[in-house]
């Protein structure tokens, strides 16, 4: 359970992840998924309620993103420049928390998103639920543009596949307190 002291700072880590990356190519949807992510958050609780998100970091191994098509995976890894950039990283810089204090909150976070060696400012909206077992569940959706991160296939492949520039990322993360 969460400590109910007047104000406590607690560090949580990602204990479960469900991440889906989708887009379109030639008017067909494609999808890659992973259940692997590392990350941490430093949270401040006041009177047993989430009061502030002090830090948020997330890292996803590129090689753990999988589709139903190994050839597509290989192309995606090449476009994401998996060698030498084997991780997608997000580091929250500005975080604003709102909520009713009933265990449900919304986090607005602006931070640095690094994909394929390129870092861009990204905004994430995360719906947070404090669970009865002391874990937190964060859910959200964001869209990024391939062009912002120079994610490319060979020119001939891009022309044939007609890839959309917009990629949608849906995520659900469970955070557990370190030490539990």
UniProtKB/TrEMBL annotation:
<feature type="domain" description="Lipid/polyisoprenoid-binding YceI-like">
    <location>
        <begin position="24"/>
        <end position="174"/>
    </location>
</feature>
<dbReference type="Pfam" id="PF04264">
    <property type="entry name" value="YceI"/>
</dbReference>
<protein>
    <submittedName>
        <fullName>Polyisoprenoid-binding protein YceI</fullName>
    </submittedName>
</protein>
<dbReference type="InterPro" id="IPR036761">
    <property type="entry name" value="TTHA0802/YceI-like_sf"/>
</dbReference>
<dbReference type="InterPro" id="IPR007372">
    <property type="entry name" value="Lipid/polyisoprenoid-bd_YceI"/>
</dbReference>
